[in-house]
Design goal:
This protein is α/β, with parallel strands linked by helices and about 170 residues long. The protein is about 35% helix and about 30% strand.
Amino acid sequence: MADKDLRINEQIRVREVRLIRDEGQRQGIMPTLEALEIAREAGLDLVEVAPQASPPVVKILNYGKFKFETEKKLRDSKKKQKLLKLKEIRMQPKIDDHDLDFKSKHIKGFLAEGNKVKVTIRFRGRELAHTNLGLDILKDVLAKLEGEYNMDKQPAMEGRFMSMILSPKPKKQ
């Protein structure tokens, strides 16, 4: 709920509203001026919480406190979000076994940190005629990872590159 679309007190320009008291009890449908008067007597604000309803739903509450609480919830939800980074590992089809092990170890590390990994094989010149070699290397990488991944994108050719995207398996809680 954005603060911009919340109307308070005199900004509410409809004839009738459905009122909810500050304790949470429903008061029913009444004229807007009467609801505004009840809010003023309580020393609080009349805030439109559901403008799309018919008639609109208004609540008697302390607007400053309400605004602070909603901003606090928004900040807390942003803290809980985890940003996923996409790391890329590049290879060639004529990669040596030791180099493949080394790169696979890096991929395992990236997945353990919770990052997505794009494994790319670059074909140069005549290597482009042997794309099956690249596919074999990607299969070897998957075998070395021992199922510690989810396949987001299957191996596919993109111009001179063959790539696949892996993401970490969700941790069991």
